[in-house]
Each structure stands twice: as structure tokens, then as C-alpha cells.
Specification:
mainly alpha; Four Helix Bundle (Hemerythrin (Met), subunit A); about 80% helix; elongated; metal-binding
């Protein structure tokens, strides 16, 4: 997947973190294309666990700083994503890596990029723009 300017929310720190996620996602996609997804899945899940702590923390603090009206709902979607990652990790620990687990991670990451970042996170940028960029 290629980064699209429409994914930018207008906050460099957040946009940079989103681009970092896309790079990791593309690494995983490439591994899957080369039948190496099983080898790459645990590394990708570890990255996601670390990434979500840092990124969601940054993003949620920004939302608090700008009095983002949908903060609570946004935090809920973050928590659901973290739980999905943890559930997938637990499944791999108990059942091992499978084609199904690589497909599930692929779908989860693609959905997150397209639906969450492109739609939900974009609202943060819109909120900042509506406030005249004074909040950041």
C-alpha cells in the first residue's frame, strides 16, 4: 500500500507515526506475498504492541489538548484494536502461527489503515483546522 496525502491529519508527529505503521504493514504484506508471513507475524505483533502504547498515547493526549469531542469513542476504538492484537498474539501462542492468523492480521491492519486512520483520525485534523491550528 502506498501512503496517500489524504491520510495526513496535519500533525507531523502523528502523521510520522502513521507512516511508520504503513512501512511495517508493507513489510508484513511483502512477507505474506513471498510465503513468509508465518515468519514475520510475531515480529509484526511485537511492533504493534509497542507502537500502540506510544502512538495511542500521543494521539489521545493530542485529543485531550484540543478538547476533541469524540475522545471517548476514539479511545474505545484504540482499546478494541489493542485487544484484537492481544487476542491474535494469544492465539498464536496457544495454537501456533497459521495461514488463518496471517490473513487475520493482514485484514486487521488494512482495515485499521483504511478505516481508522483515513476516517477517524482525519477528524482530529479537521478539529484542529476548525480551531485555526491554535491547539497544536
Amino acid at each position: 500500500m502506498d501512503w496517500k496525502d489524504s491520510y495526513d491529519i496535519g500533525v507531523e508527529k502523528i502523521d510520522c507515526q502513521h507512516r511508520q505503521l504503513l512501512v511495517k504493514l508493507n513489510d508484513f504484506f511483502e512477507a505474506c506475498t513471498n510465503q513468509q508471513g508465518k515468519d514475520k507475524i510475531e515480529e509484526t505483533l511485537k511492533f504493534l504492541k509497542d507502537y500502540t502504547v506510544e502512538h495511542f498515547g500521543s494521539e489521545e493526549q493530542l485529543m485531550k489538548d484540543i478538547d476533541f469531542p469524540e475522545l471517548t469513542e476514539h479511545q474505545k476504538t484504540h482499546a478494541e484494536f489493542v485487544q484484537t492484537v492481544l487476542d491474535l498474539e494469544e492465539s498464536i501462542k496457544t495454537k501456533g502461527v497459521s495461514v488463518l492468523s496471517t490473513i487475520k492480521l493482514n485484514r486487521t491492519l488494512t482495515d485499521w489503515l483504511i478505516n481508522h486512520i483515513h476516517k477517524c483520525d482525519k477528524l482530529i485534523g479537521d478539529c484542529i483546522a476548525a480551531k485555526g491550528n491554535k491547539a497544536v
